[in-house]
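Quick one: Ribosome maturation factor RimM from Kineococcus radiotolerans, structure tokens please.
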Amino acid sequence: MEYVVARVGRPHGVRGEVTVEVRTDDPDTRFAPGAVLRTDPDRGPLTVATARWHNGTLLLTFQGVEDRTAVEGLRNTRLVVDLDDEADPDDDAWYPHQLQGLAAVTTTGTPLGTVKDLLTGGAQDVLVVTGTDGREVLVPFVTPLVPRVDVKRGKVVLSPPGGLFVELPGEPEE
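--- reply ---
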């Protein structure tokens, strides 16, 4: 399965550097010089020549793409990797597509809804769960609230605080 790890942005300077919108949690490893990335739409594989951070933006150059005009042709190209080619040594890490559609249940097995998405954030990741009542609920992806993820069995076990999924007495209805 392909996973988008970045989107090529606008050129930076005249020597083939390009800004990159990062969509991976490990950009320093993913975009290390020598890394080969596939493209969507297909413009052939790109090999990272250099990578550096400038004011919080990742700047890359690719082998064989050496000037501003050539880089401009890559604008909005998605950089993808094939997850099947990668070994995942971390049993405690998931890609959003692995969690989307999983059943969200309590520690006692009571259905709470379905995982819609995984948002990556500064402090912690957040699960977006569509509750059984149709509301979207944001659940911080931390062990006390999400004690177990079982992708093979198709479920995420949650231990939500009172009121997160169930209306509390006296709460106004939306």
